[in-house]
User: Fold these one by one.
Assistant:
Number 1:
Amino acid sequence: MRTEDVLAAIATGLWRWDNASGTVTLDGEAARLLGLPAEPVELPEVAVRSRFHPVDWNEINGIVNLAVAEGTLAEARLRIMDEDGRVLRTVRSRSKPLANVTPEGRQDYQLIGTIQEIAEPQPGTTAAHTPITGDWRRSREAFLLDAGRALAEARSTAEVLRVAASLSMPGFNPDGLAVFGVAGERLSIIGHHGHLPGDEIPFSDMRLDTDYPAAEVVRTGRAIYLPTPEEYRRRFPATWPLAQRFGRISWAYLPLIVAGRTMGAWMAAFKHPVSFSPDERSVLTTVARMLAQALQRAGVAESEKELATGLQRSMMPTLGPSIPGMQVAARYVPTGGGLQVGGDWYDMIPLPSGRFALVIGDVQGHDVRAAGLMGQLRIAVRAYASEGHRPDAVLSRASRFLAGLHASSEEEAEPYDDADFRSPRFATCLYAECDPETGVLEVARAGHPEPAIRMTDGTVLMRPTAGGLPLGIIPDTDYPTTRFTLEPGETMMLCTDGLIETGGHDLDTGWARLREVLEGETHRAESLDKLADALVSAVHGPSSHHTTGPLADRREDDIAVVLLCREGPGCGCGESVSHPSRPARRTMLTVAQAEPERIAGARRQIRELLHDWADADQVDSAVLMVSEMLTNVLMHTDGDAMLLAEASGELGARRLRVEVADGSDELPHKRQPGEMASSGRGVLLTEMLADTWGVDPRGEGKSIWFELYERSKPAEDAAPDATTGEKPDAKAV
């Protein structure tokens, strides 16, 4: 005979409780003892827990934890309940906790043991309040601790109501709950549980002078306990027919009081008789107090959220009407803390000339004051732009406006001695005026990150633009303007530093992360709105980072991003990215005499332009020649250097042409520098490294240029000639 058959004959079942996975495995006899079909089954923990009396469940937790700590057996008696809260039988459990380590390295345990039926209360009787495995008061205290923690963690009114509905009170568990609020002189239903949709209609909008228990509780601030239907009918005959149809046996109505003010009432209804002993009334009163405080906190949080949402909606503009030949998409994501408002903003402004302007900015901070300054500054920039001022004039006026706000706030804040209110704040901003017919952009920048351009073949380059100090630091600041053309099929991205640096990144690593998204084949074929969503998702991570859970919220700074696309093949507006011939890549950069540090930016531009070039040595050669040519202009002339680079052709057979123009008529000369000479090798390097080069005189000045032809593999790795045994010349490959 099998062991299972022997155990079943003496009404003993086997079970295995896996605490790590939250599952319980039962044999047929154990399932029968728990009121389930008599067959082996594996159930979630919550399904088995619902079969135990709440008092016994609270006590068994302490017994198991003690057995785990001491390495002993866990023994207890448990009452098995049916769905109506009646005792089916009483069983004795004997189990051994076995420690195990989860794949995540967390210490946990399994319970392996038996349950056996014993002669206790008869089926069909109500659950008595006599202690089985421990003391009633200890069970009550454990329940109240759990209830208080769960209600304290609820963030919204809906969550508070869900927690209240899931509370399993020790010894008496209501099957119907309702929370009443007060709106003027009438009751309102905030939420309910255990009722069908529409059951709350007769109780909604009920006058406070109605002969109804909840209305009397709100009027008097005192609880009402109705242990029998007869008591309900005797005290409230007018509204008894409304309650009679639900088939409840006992009711408790308790006031929800916060800071001495009755904000509503809580109803707990039972399908089994409850005498409402002092212990039971104490539990209900305590739960009502915690519920009132939780609802108050949730109401305040929801009001703050509504305020923040309204503030965002009032300050964040909607993008204007569609522009022929262009598409615009924008996103704003507030920081994860506080009221979720901040100083980032974007705007799209129709101009009197028929053009339009794109503005993106970031006021220092992400609090209410930053949001207020942002709103004022956005309106000022829109007003200056609508008057027809050029980009540099718009930013100059905006800087004076913000500095003026600081001066006035210092005078107004003196009586309040508010250091944070008095402290000046600056703002970064980028203003781009666009001609939709030609794609010409005029950009002025005030301490803001530079724009990025995604070319028609998917290559992404940072577009160097001249800039000045952030707004508000020095009132009279000049902001130079950079002019370039957005070619058909190209997309420009403007963003605040939150999109770049969130997640612990700096400017370089942050741009590298965004470049992967912009250059991705999937996103290049998607619409502009989907591309904007993909950029935000790449920074914020998966959705679990936005919600309560083990992963921290990564919204550490506000984010604003604007995408401008000039429609054409491969523009990211849903069109195909395939091309009959690969389009050329171009970049242009001006290096002024007073800005020699921009030579480093030019080197970076060349590397980004040639990011997929087959021969890395050729890329190094191009960077070296560009650096040498720009340096020569700054050293040997009095003017600025203009760099123009273009890569054209199919992959593996492309041509790179670089031109550096200046205003000097003096032509470069080939020299023979000595071993110790510190200069004079520029022309020699160009002659050695370039496939071809030259100098083109112009009406005013000259243009020095060179070309490189892409090699599919470096010359030193090429196979030797079959007849001569020599490797081919690099320029012939």
Number 2:
Amino acid sequence: MTDPVAARRAAIAAEKERLARAQERRPSRGPAGANGFAQRKWRWLGVNGGEAVDAVLALLKDIVEAPTLTDGQRDTLSRAVAGTPDRETLLPAVRASLANLEPDGVLGHLRTLWAAGVRWLNEAGSERCRILCSTAPGVELVNVKSRAISGGPAFSLFATAATRGAIPVPNAHLPQVLPWAPLSVIDDLVDHGGLLAEDRPWETREEADALYLRARLAPSSISPRDAARLGWDGFLRRRAFLDGDTIVRQEPEDVWDLLYDVVADVHLPSLDALDAALPRAQQIELRNLKSGALNGQWAMETVRDKGLWKLMAALWQPTEPVDPTRSDFHALVALRRAYDLTKSGNMEAAGRQADSFLRDRAVRSLPAQLVCEAYTIAAYVAAVTSNTAAGSEKLALAEEHARKAVGTGSAVAERNLALVRTWRSTPKNQRGPMTNPFLELGLDHAAEGWERHCRELFRQYEHEGDHASQARVNQAEDRIHDAFRHDAGLDVFLQLPLDRSRYEMPDAVPGQLVPPLEPMARRTSLTSGTELETIRARAAVELLDDFRSTAPHLDRHGPTR
């Protein structure tokens, strides 16, 4: 029963039914203790009224035959049943008898005594007994005296269970209750912060419970094998993402699907959905990343996270030359920008971007492979633009750049250098076009599907009525066909890049956007009535420590005081 109001009403109804049954049974017990003379004797032992006397006599008859009693204790109980209770010895004998009963029996007798108004417990015990006998203990525990809450281990656990974890178990009692407490009550403590990983509750539980509690309190101690045993899908999907494994999409999509879409596939329309799915800390990181893309300015922690580079490069569209010395990321963006500008035919902008790699500071600080790629682009730009008045100087510069590009020992760079030297030694009016036709078409060198791309471009320019561009497409296509008919093949063209892998963004896990491993969500339902009764009965046994050794002092003619 999960509705607390309905649970309280059911408990009250059950208690009323129990009291009604007890009332029905009392007339059949005979008139023992009902006469005034007997009642006066019992008042000296804190038993006030005929109903209370009947309840005590029923208790005594039930426990008088306990096998563990001494002869003196049994005699004391027998004399009390016969109508001559002893003020000095009766209560210790009753306590000794109750201590040998099962917890359910102790609880039943204490409930009967409490309902009859018999207060054989000290003040603190009476307060705890009032709570244990309450039909709505959770409500009764609100604003009670602190000593009523600070009982023994079982009573402390009862207070926790009755309030669903709002009242924690004192640390001193945890070792006594953790081995037997219902798992749902332990979950209540976890939910309210009353149980921490430092308490290591799993050490006292069986294997299945121990694994569950470690997942709840110390998720970092869980292995993928453990998570599979638990069926902990969130852990397994997070691990698969961190390991770069394929993630099976869920419906609806979760944060791992969205991270894969945005970070790995750079699907920018999913950015808003990812922003909504991320925890607050990672949400802030994502928003800082997006705002930094306005001008290419990010915190160094973000720039060092290579898993974010694809997304950063997709969000940032620089319109001015990028300084490659700012970071490894900026160097890669600058190189890719120079190459893209070359393919788009913007040789002036491509040359300016490539020149940013050729300054002394950049040459000394940047990786040699990237510098060689920049030299190759610069050589290509110089060669292609050598048809101006300063053509010879341009070709000389192209040869110098191509020679420096050979620094990494690339065979492609050596062929490029030989090609530029051949152009320089050939008279101007005998040189053919120095452009790479693949780059003229906006393609990578030797790209597959180039013929289909040519047809598409031709139809596009035809639709636009751009006959000059149609002619350039036909010329580039003819040059490629001619190259394939010769033994040298595509080596007749100045090739860039030297190594395509140097332009690729790294495939890495974005550390700053990966949510931390959260504890496994609770899997237990609310504590059942049966479990609560079990704890209540064990707490009732603890009340025997609060049993009086002598009866409370009563006024002969008045109520208990």
Number 3:
Amino acid sequence: MHADISRDTFRPERRYSAVIAQQGRVQLDADANEQAAIQLAQARTVAADLIGQHGGPRDATGFAVGFVPGSRELDDLTIGGGRYYVDGILLDASRPEPGVPVVDDEPGKPAAEDDEGQDGDGAPAPAASEPPAGWTYWDQPDAYRDPERPGDRLPAHFPYLAYLKVWERSVTAAEDPLLREVALGSALPDTAARIKVVWQVLPLPGAELELETADGSPQSQDEVRAAFARWVAAQAPTARMAARSRRPEHADDEPCLVKPDARYRGPENQMYRVEIHEGGTAKEATFKWSRENGSVTFAVDELDGTWVELASLGSDDKLDLNVGDLVEFTDTGAIGRGETLPLLRVEEVDLPGRRVRLSGEPERHIGRRPELHPFLRRWDHRPVSRHTGSGGTGGSGRTKQGAGRTRGGALRIEEGGWLPLEDGVHVYFEPGKTYRSGDFWTVAARTATGDVEWPTDAARRPLLRSPHGIGTHYAPLAWVLSESAVTDLRLAFGPLAVPVPAASEAELAAERAAEEETVAAERAAADAAARPADDGTDAATEAPGSEEQPGN
């Protein structure tokens, strides 16, 4: 997640069940975030254990897929409302109810509709259309399908699979202005970010499922589910990375801002983010990095060629834009589609006009729709020589390091060796792996220790780790065989609670007999307590000759 956090302390393998706040202690963002992560992981684990890999409640199962053929228009799919769970993650396909506007009846303005149901010209007002109950393939909220793009259209040949792709992403005030508290003023940064669950219904041609039947027509739903499971397993990236800090060669030439023996030489605590830009093999993949976890963003007000007008240029010299900075011009649509966009260089900064000039014009479909909230995201790497470790400084005055080979503004991945980022921070990519765009690792660097926080073995060797994110989840929905044949692949579950069953006649008779025995025993005990004492014992003691005579 691209958020301004100090570090990520959630470790599932440590089995923590809660975070305990202590009196008189500093409250950190990492503690609150870990508590939320613990609760979320527990809830989703319980849901997945009870439901399985995917499924929906029996009477409210969502994501029912139907085929809508297009005569003059493009083919479409209907997506039914309701709820569904994928790996314990709750999804809701219910379409929000439209709001009811207030009728404008201010004096001097023509009424939109009079009391007799007519508009301002005296003609009958058009009847309000009923809002759709669900979504369609083309208007689903977070997929951003574009009919003008051939790759977004449904497959032209049957059969194909309609499946769910689920993932999560962070949202800040740059993408959702309603998150910003305007009472704090525009000079202050935004407050908390949000995590959003994104679901997308996408098609997969049947030829890619490697079904055993020659014509691609499965014999059962289980065959399609099994083939889809194999396809999902093949999508998982295999990349692993490690990080370490090492005292740079030029450390003796710098002012002693940190401990002389420190390996991490940065003057401030940082949360480095190493993110895959273009995916593929090592020859194809590139990466980018940020010392602020990729959280430095600037909302775009207007785009004019290569000039970009921003809502703000940043709150200080650490979180602003300077000539030479690399930025990613994107919006919520491009993020939802998972597009890889070229990184652009800031060539000029116009402070009074809150404008920057970029090295190139952004993609034609990016930044032209204000409702998609376009913004710039700053990245901190520089294309300099990795052997000399030099190459100038950026706007913050920090010495930059990094691999020299670039493509599209991002750094090429070089496997099997330690790559310097800056200030003694190095990363290592395991050889022979594949990479997926958007996957990332985070590395916390601390001035107090002069080191980075990264797991090591007993010999203090850095351990290889899979990406921290993005976690992607899948579920099959429907097998579209033809225009009139759609096989439902969803699963449903019923509620665990059931009515208490009525007792049988034998159980009722045994219960009555037990009650009668209890009552009889209680009566017998009461009768025994109320019966007079037995006089036989006293008579025996008073019988003649029974008393002892004195002198005997």
